[in-house]
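Priority: low. Protein: RmlD-like substrate binding domain-containing protein. Input follows.
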Amino acid sequence: IFDGRAERPYKPEDEANPLSVYGRSKWEGEQAIRAASCRHLVVRTSWLFGPLGHNFVEAILTRARAGGSLKVVIDQVGRPTLAADLAEAVVRLLDAGAFGAVHFANSGQCSWFEFAQEIIRQARLDVPLSGITSEKVDRPAPRPAYSVLDTSRYVELTGHTPAPWTDALKRYPAARSKYARTPDVLSPPSGDRPSLR
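Result:
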């Protein structure tokens, strides 16, 4: 819901300025909840990845295992968030009696390119990776250049500090195996040399 022009992580009270129809729909949903004058909790997150459905981690691994080089955006920065960590955060917030808007994401920040680098590194894949700018990517809607969320209110309310996104990524294979009943995609293949198959 933010336009990405900030130079510091976005706080829940910062002014919203969605760039896309998708962002506007989320913001309008929040406004409708507030207009209902009921006690509510809105948890905003970013760059979500989990064991079910399509996500950036799966896309990078699929393309990397198919062979060839990868080009990934270098000028968009955010905080990757593991779905299981978000679910636990919501429970913590409910237990704390939180209401209003709260931001939750795994700690740290990176570009999509750096996220892809870490995915490939943890999977021990040998794949050429290069960075490109957003203007060279054909996207149906604009995306904010900076979407890092300030999670300090979450920490104050729950007393819990979000895990680093790199640690969350390490836990992704176990989550994927548990919920999707599929192989540990980040686990390196057997043998000395990584397989791209």
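The longest strand covers residues 41-44. The two ends are 38 Å apart (CA to CA).
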